[in-house]
Design goal:
The protein is of the alpha+beta class. It has 8 helices and 13 strands.
Length: 307
């Protein structure tokens, strides 16, 4: 199976992804960056050169407090408590950001292999109650700055959003890049818009909320072959992939522990899509600054696209 064949992998073929797309040892035994190693000083300079109009666009959803989002999809609403005094005010923010509500980035300690390994072959015992000794988000504290490319699937299909019966495949991402006039480059942040806002607007009570429309495991091959630095999405894995024995999350279970691929979850690409369409540009500088959390499994983030 390959992208050129446009064929869905069998369970046996999917199982080979663990070795075919593995980056264990590729950047040395001490590597903590995974596919972020594809972002070089030249990559950052080239991304900065894409800033011509001086416009910036947030790709984050609002912190999911109970007031912002209620229901099963936000089972642990973020806390936002105000402290108002006579001469000023302050506030407290607390958030359990993993899941399907808050915009966040997954660190490489977030998902284990089936036999208890982290990215680069490290033991999952490196993750303790005090935090992760390796593969934590603290190693990304200097920020992520690279070329972002928006793959606007609904626009390409002429639809409002991706549907359950038609997941996004790797070859479709290649088709979209060609249609947008963009050549995938090493170190890209691949941002895939599925139309989450429209989907949830029409299906507010959709359950189970972790089986929304989204991406198929075939996108892993596209990400590997193009040496992408990270994947961002507004909807995650598509349903109907249980045959891959990956807890219905084949991209998470292969991308993070084997490829070392950071995932930007629950992004909001609506304003970005509108800006790209207005300017006729689908590439831009993308900047993500994770919180410096020692031993952290990820971080809530506000990704910024700059044109």
């Amino acid at each position: 199976m390959s992208l050129a064949d446009r064929a869905i992998p069998t369970p046996e073929e999917f199982d080979t992804y663990k070795e075919r797309f593995s980056n264990w040892g590729r950047w040395g035994d001490d590597d903590q960056l995974g596919t972020l190693n594809h972002i070089t000083t030249e990559t950052r300079r080239n991304a900065a050169a894409l800033v011509r109009d001086g416009r910036s666009v947030s790709c984050a959803r609002p912190l999911a407090t109970e007031q912002v989002l209620s229901g099963p999809r936000n089972g642990a609403p973020a806390d936002h408590k105000m402290n108002i005094g006579v001469m000023g005010c302050s506030d407290y923010i607390g958030v359990s950001y993993h899941g399907f509500a808050n915009t966040h980035i997954d660190a490489l300690c977030h998902i284990f292999t089936a036999d208890g390994k982290l990215y680069n072959g490290r033991p999952s015992s490196d993750v303790t109650e005090e935090g992760a000794k390796n593969n934590s988000v603290e190693f990304w504290r200097h920020g992520i700055a690279t070329r972002g490319v928006l793959y606007d699937v609904p626009r390409h299909r002429g639809a409002e959003y991706v549907t359950l019966d038609e997941p996004v495949h790797g070859w479709e991402l290649a088709d979209i890049a060609a249609a947008e006039g963009v050549k995938p480059e090493t170190g890209d942040a691949v941002l895939v818009r599925c139309g989450a806002t429209e989907f949830w607007g029409e299906n507010p009570n959709f359950e189970p909320f972790w089986k929304t429309p989204g991406l198929h495991a075939t996108t892993l091959e596209f990400l590997h072959e193009t040496d992408a630095a990270l994947l961002g999405w507004d909807l995650m894995e598509a349903p109907g992939q249980d045959q891959y024995q990956a807890s219905s999350m084949p991209i998470h279970s292969t991308g993070i522990p084997y490829m070392g691929l950071p995932l930007l979850d629950n992004a909001d690409f609506d304003a970005l899509a509108a800006t790209c369409a207005e300017l006729g540009r689908w590439e831009f500088q993308l900047v993500i600054a994770p919180l410096f959390v020692k031993g952290g499994t990820g971080s809530p983030v506000n990704p910024i696209a700059i044109f």
